[in-house]
UniProtKB/TrEMBL annotation:
Name of this chain's protein: dTMP kinase
Residues of the whole record sequence present: 53 to 265 of 806
Stated family: Belongs to the thymidylate kinase family.
Amino acid sequence: SSESGGRRGALIVLEGCDKAGKSTQCRLLLEALKDAGKPCHLFAFPDRNTEIGKVIDQYLKCTKNLSDEAIHLLFSTNRWELVPTIRELLLNGESVVLDRYAFSGVAFSAAKGTMDLEWCMGPDVGLPQPDLVFFLNLTKEAASKRDDFGRERYEKTEFQEKVKSIFMKIQDPAYWKVIDADRSKEEVQKELFQLSLETIEKSKNKPILKLWD
Ligand code: 2DT
Ligand code: MG
């Protein structure tokens, strides 16, 4: 279908701090949408499989060091390299679910304290704007009851708290929905599924907007 007359799919993003259950919820959401007859695709950022993604993977595993600015730009490039695919799917009437997006890009980089918020947002300006962002919100208390962090860069409680405060600063009520992630996986899943169905209906005839434009 064409950009002007077509019925497009919705762009739905899951964001949140580590351990909030994003990846599990992404999988469950995709299954539920498919069962409901909604064509959809799942992508995760960073996409560690591209050439740029492989460098990002090394950085996260601490086998490679890069300046804060350089890794920030690579994370952004890693999104831009998938934009043609995402746009094509959306315009084809298929919904796209993303496990992290530019909000993680800004929150994790700005939390380092070496780059200001506006600078961090710059490279992602103009990306397809999500129709809905679920922010999976986990309280400190609930987080401490879950498994310990892994060994990747950023997987530290104190840093995660800074990240969360920046997520809160950059939220846009036009598409941002805070989800109580302290609840059971099933309860969270039900809410995400219902809200996603509504958003898919509402987005059908809307243009794809540009993020932070
Ligand atoms: P996963 O554990 O979800 O693979 O993320 N990150 C992510 C950034 O610093 N900038 C970004 O743009 C993105 C998408 C968050 C790996 C880590 O990478 C961080 C956690
Ligand atoms: Mg991780």
